[in-house]
């Protein structure tokens, strides 16, 4: 079998295993949707200076949270569990290369992230009257989405090396996820409300740029004035996400191990 064939086959196995785990299935999709419903309902009648409702701003920003939560946490916790229960050790004795295994995991993450984004967008349209963007914005959505999924997945693989016990994976992986949401303009808008040093820290990581990019896709041009620099900065969004894809890949190559006994 070719590496591509093994990757697709592994992806199908990963997807079937995930779908059969009802708890993981419900929690992965329900939690971001629940947060959107809460924030959108509580602040839904508030309007920004650009005339866009707060619920619509939350919807666009929460797409970034959905991708991060799905790609980073699912990839990291999945790898930690496979390493602990011996799945990776058994696969090491098969002809499957590590690249096919990781691509299979990536296919799972891609499908889940796409489904999560679709659910959040659907909620925004049906519950909060968010208009769908024009066709050219969907092109921008595609490259922002793919770069976001790749970067978050690779970082999830790298951080999984820190998880020695799969039972602790959720706690370890969710700490940076929750922290970055609050400082990256997902839960707090506009970001200018945050201290300058927090904004500087958030600007290093990809989440701020993911959220800003998705706001460009789904919000009207009038909302651009609410961004920190008064611009969508799509060039910088692409640059930062691209850099994190490279950084994530390097970290994966440096930290990946087949079992917890490896250094």
From TrEMBL:
Localized where? Answer: Cell membrane; Membrane
How would you describe this protein's topology in the membrane?
Answer: Multi-pass membrane protein
What domain of life does the UniProt record list for this protein's source?
A: Bacteria
Which cellular component terms (GO) are annotated to the entry?
A: ATP-binding cassette (ABC) transporter complex
State the similarity comment. Answer: Belongs to the ABC-2 integral membrane protein family.
Name the source organism.
Actinoplanes missouriensis (strain ATCC 14538 / DSM 43046 / CBS 188.64 / JCM 3121 / NBRC 102363 / NCIMB 12654 / NRRL B-3342 / UNCC 431)
A single GO molecular function term of this UniProt record: ABC-type transporter activity
Q: What is this protein called?
A: Transport permease protein
User: Which InterPro entries does the UniProt entry name for this protein?
Assistant: ABC2_TM, ABC2_TM_bact-type, ABC_2_transport, Nod_factor_ABC_transporter
């Amino acid at each position: 079998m070719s590496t591509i064939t093994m990757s697709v086959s592994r992806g199908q196995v990963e997807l079937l295993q995930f779908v059969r785990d009802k708890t993981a299935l419900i929690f992965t999709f329900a939690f971001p949707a629940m947060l959107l419903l809460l924030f959108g309902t509580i602040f839904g009648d508030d309007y920004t200076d650009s005339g866009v409702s707060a619920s619509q701003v939350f919807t666009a920003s929460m797409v970034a949270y959905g991708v991060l939560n799905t790609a980073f946490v699912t990839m990291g916790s999945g790898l930690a569990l496979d390493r602990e229960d011996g799945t990776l050790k058994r696969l090491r004795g098969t002809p499957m290369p590590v690249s096919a295994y990781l691509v299979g995991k990536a296919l799972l993450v891609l499908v889940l992230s796409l489904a999560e984004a679709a659910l959040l967008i659907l909620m925004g349209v049906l519950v909060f009257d968010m208009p769908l963007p024009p066709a050219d914005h969907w092109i921008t959505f595609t490259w922002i989405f793919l770069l976001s999924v790749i970067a978050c997945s690779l970082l999830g693989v790298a951080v999984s090396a820190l998880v020695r016990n799969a039972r602790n994976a959720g706690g370890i992986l969710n700490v940076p996820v929750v922290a970055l949401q609050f400082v990256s303009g997902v839960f707090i808008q506009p970001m200018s409300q945050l201290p300058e040093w927090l904004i500087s820290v958030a600007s290093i990581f990809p989440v701020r740029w993911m959220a800003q990019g998705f706001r460009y896709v789904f919000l009207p041009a009038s909302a651009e004035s609410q961004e920190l620099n008064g611009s969508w900065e799509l060039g910088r969004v692409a640059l930062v996400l691209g850099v994190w894809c490279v950084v994530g890949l390097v970290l994966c190559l440096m930290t990946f191990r087949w079992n917890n006994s490896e250094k």
